[in-house]
Amino acid sequence: MSGLTLATISHSFSARRVLDTVSLVIRPGELVALVGPSGCGKSTLAAIAGGILKPDQGRILRQYQRHGMVFQQSRLLPWASARDNIAYPLTLGKLSRAQITERTHAAAQAVALLPDDLDKLPAQLSGGMRARVAIARALVVEPEFLIFDEPFAALDPALRRRMQDLVLSLAKARGFGGLFITHDLHEAARLSHRIAVMDRQGKGILGSLTPPGTPGARSEAQIFDFTQEARNHPLLHDLLNVDERAVTLDCACDTLGFQRCC
Ligand SMILES: Nc1ncnc2c1ncn2[C@@H]1O[C@H](COP(=O)(O)OP(=O)(O)OP(=O)(O)O)[C@@H](O)[C@H]1O
């Protein structure tokens, strides 16, 4: 079981303070979705959680050995094939060539990449394929914790659903925890034990919403009902502007296969 504690994290870019004493505790095995208005500092917090960015102040406690990260932009090596991008983190360890090949192909298969796609460079892949290569690269290390920054945004509804199911089944099998950043409330409700809502100005976590049941065991009706109710929750109502609410609704309708139900 793996958890993460971010304690009173502050960070500035140039003179502009983006995060101001933000604390978030993810208990061992807990999947937390982080939502909040665009620009409030979610990606910055994810980069700090993943050790990509050193905060100006604050403490990070990781209760795991390895995490897998997916960034908002796929951040693939442009000169390397999809296969080599997925394998890259393994080449930094002590695995044999045969083990690397086996794990790379298993990860590629899990994200529904075809063998032909693996020879292509990132520029030759579609946006959705690039996103899946990035997800495979995160999963290939057999992570104990996931940090995913809008990992499924470039995927069509069917693939998005498939990737969500993949993460849920792996989380269940391995008991890992995770931090998922998303603008899609339906996705947040589907993937997480808890939805943490970040302040508009990066001044902390305003509170959390807890969908009923556990991720992976919720019915689509439960998720849909929760999402509809949550939109009117003061925590979200004050934070999401009209456009963002519309996007969230579209996503929920798409995923459920409804014709503009709302
Ligand atoms: N490398 C950087 N240099 C300067 N400013 C940055 C940098 N990265 C982020 N910022 C600024 O920090 C603020 C928070 O950005 P961040 O990407 O963390 O927000 P976010 O909540 O993830 O937004 P979104 O939901 O739109 O992805 C923004 O004002 C952004 O312009």
Could you describe the 3D structure shown?
By secondary structure, the chain is of the alpha/beta class. It has a domain at 4-66 and 143-256: P-loop containing nucleotide triphosphate hydrolases (Rossmann fold, 3-Layer(aba) Sandwich). The protein is 38% helix and 21% strand. It contains nine helices and nine strands. The protein has helices at residues 42-49, 82-91, 97-110, 127-139, 157-174, 185-191, 220-230, 234-237, 242-256; strands spanning 4-13, 16-26, 31-35, 57-62, 67-70, 145-149, 177-181, 194-198, 205-209. The strands form two sheets. Strands 5-6-7-3-8-9 form a six-stranded mixed β-sheet, with helices on both faces. The protein has a three-stranded antiparallel β-sheet with strand order 2-1-4, with helices on one face. A hairpin with a 6-residue loop joins strand 8 and strand 9 (205-209). The chain binds adenosine-5'-triphosphate (ATP). Adenosine-5'-triphosphate (ATP) binds next to helix 1. It comes from Roseinatronobacter thiooxidans. Keywords: ATP-binding, Cell inner membrane, Cell membrane, Membrane, Nucleotide-binding, Translocase, Transport. Residues 4-225 form the ABC transporter domain.
